[in-house]
């Protein structure tokens, strides 16, 4: 017996001139019978999305940093909007909320770092790449860029090694991962060769990232209680200095002194969970889960006079789209129930979605599919991407086929497929809230418009968001979910699904 989704896929294939899931133009066609928009689609309005975006992504909520009062205030605001729309609470104890703890491990303010006669302050003059206990008092040796020729006659055993970062790396949006990956890998090699500490000095290209990305290092590491990032360990310190340090780091006979202690704190974060009950007595027990996250980076070091890292695209855009989809399901409920989860602490390591997958407020087996919204308001108006569209990331051909069909019949975005490939340097598939669901074999995809130069900067503000594009992606997600929510059978998990990491 051919599964009903297989029958539909064959029909779509017959109607399509060219079907190729691995190419941007390879999209399924859709029959006329399925192309008519449900009545709920009219509830997805750009005016509502723009109003909600400026409220959630504006300065009032101060960037919604996980574990802060700002995240909690924003979460209360979202819950109140959902209540006013008519959604049912689906969190813990009859509320819209599912609270959980996040644990933060950071370097203490009493830690000391000195090179020669200079006293350096972590978070200002220098940054340690990991919050680990260390006590080092050793001679410093400068090895230039660390090339084989420069290292040939240098004894690094028992010494702190200062090295100038080199290499241009890939394109800008991927350079950050290249930078951190190179520093971590090369430092491990030097320590293995006998160094007791590694001091990186920025070159011209790395300097812009020193200024832009080191705010995360100030805060330390986050995890759920008992997670791997909560462990306090001892290791040789890796220090990162600005490009201006090159003028004095070369001086001979300097001593490197570093005494690092760490401390740990527990903070509350929260998932917001709401529901629109299904209309079918049997299918209503199953859920289509629309996923997003409400947190961002909060208030940090000012860049060009702006200290609020708003996160309008990341991820107020996903939140307001999810709210619009909720309005559509309130206007016209589907046969299956629609579940809406706004995850907390995504920016700290997908903590809210990891917690929800472990402690769902509905039976985990009742979750038919997850449609995740992650940064959907920038770049070309007609471009988008599905994460989980192609192997090894695709865990449900049925789910992907439904999304492609809805796009072909309605929104017609040109779909990027490069960012979903396992070899893409950003590893984008592994960086949003669909991932924990996929790891427990729940069909899951993410809708995104990908990175842009304002990513994780104070420039990610509501004024820069294409609200028309957010509206169109919201409609695309809704129509995909509506199809799945009303189909007689569940979307299937692909056999032998296994992620590459």
Automatic annotation (TrEMBL):
It holds the Pfam family Peptidase_M28. Keywords: Signal. GO terms for biological process: proteolysis. It comes from Spirosoma sordidisoli. Residues 1-29 form the signal peptide. InterPro entries: M28_fam, PA_dom_sf, Peptidase_M28. This is M28 family peptidase. PANTHER family: METALLOPEPTIDASE M28 FAMILY MEMBER, PEPTIDASE M28 DOMAIN-CONTAINING PROTEIN.
């Amino acid at each position: 017996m051919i599964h009903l989704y297989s029958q539909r896929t064959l029909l779509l294939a017959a109607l399509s001139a060219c079907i190729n899931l691995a190419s941007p133009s390879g999209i399924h066609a859709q029959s006329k019978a399925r192309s008519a928009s449900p009545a709920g689609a009219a509830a997805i309005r750009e005016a509502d999305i723009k109003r909600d975006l400026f409220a959630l992504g504006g300065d009032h909520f101060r960037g919604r940093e996980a574990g802060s009062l700002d995240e909690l205030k924003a979460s209360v605001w979202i819950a109140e909007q959902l209540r006013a729309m008519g959604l049912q609470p689906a969190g813990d104890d009859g509320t819209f909320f599912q609270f959980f703890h996040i644990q933060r491990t950071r370097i203490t303010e009493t830690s000391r770092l000195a090179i020669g006669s200079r006293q350096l302050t972590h978070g200002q003059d220098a940054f340690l790449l990991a919050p680990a206990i260390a006590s080092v008092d050793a001679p410093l040796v400068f090895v230039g860029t660390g090339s084989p020729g420069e290292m040939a006659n240098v004894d690094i055993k028992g010494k702190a090694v200062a090295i100038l970062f080199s290499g241009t790396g890939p394109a800008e949006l991927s350079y950050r991962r290249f930078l951190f990956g190179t520093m971590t890998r090369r430092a491990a090699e030097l320590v293995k060769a006998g160094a007791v500490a590694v001091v990186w000095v920025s070159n011209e290209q790395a300097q812009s990232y020193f200024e832009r990305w080191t705010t995360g290092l100030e805060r330390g590491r986050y995890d759920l209680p008992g997670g791997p990032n909560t462990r306090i360990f001892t290791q040789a310190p890796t220090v990162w200095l600005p490009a201006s340090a090159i003028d004095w780091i070369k001086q001979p006979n300097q001593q490197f002194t570093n005494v690092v202690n760490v401390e740990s704190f527990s903070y509350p974060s929260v998932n917001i969970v709401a529901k629109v009950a299904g209309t079918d007595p049997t299918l209503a027990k199953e859920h289509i889960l629309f996923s997003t996250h409400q947190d961002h980076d909060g208030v940090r070091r000012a860049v060009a006079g702006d200290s609020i890292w708003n996160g309008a695209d990341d991820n107020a855009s996903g939140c307001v789209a999810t709210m619009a989809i909720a309005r559509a399901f309130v206007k016209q409920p589907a046969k299956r129930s629609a579940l809406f989860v706004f995850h907390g602490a995504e920016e700290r390591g997908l903590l809210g979605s990891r917690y929800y997958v472990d402690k769902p407020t509905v039976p985990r087996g009742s979750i038919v599919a997850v449609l995740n919204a992650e940064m959907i308001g920038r770049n070309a108006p007609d471009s988008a991407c599905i994460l989980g569209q192609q192997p090894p990331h695709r865990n449900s051909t049925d789910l992907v086929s439904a999304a492609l069909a809805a796009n072909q019949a309605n929104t017609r975005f040109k779909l990027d497929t490069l960012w979903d490939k396992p070899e893409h340097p950003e590893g984008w598939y592994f960086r949003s809230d669909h991932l924990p669901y996929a790891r427990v074999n729940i069909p899951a995809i993410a809708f995104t418009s990908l990175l842009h130069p304002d990513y994780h900067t104070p420039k990610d503000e509501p004024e820069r968001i294409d609200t028309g594009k957010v509206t169109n992606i919201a409609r695309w997600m809704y129509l995909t979910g509506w199809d799945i929510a009303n189909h007689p059978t569940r979307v299937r998990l692909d056999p032998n699904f296994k992620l590459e990491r």
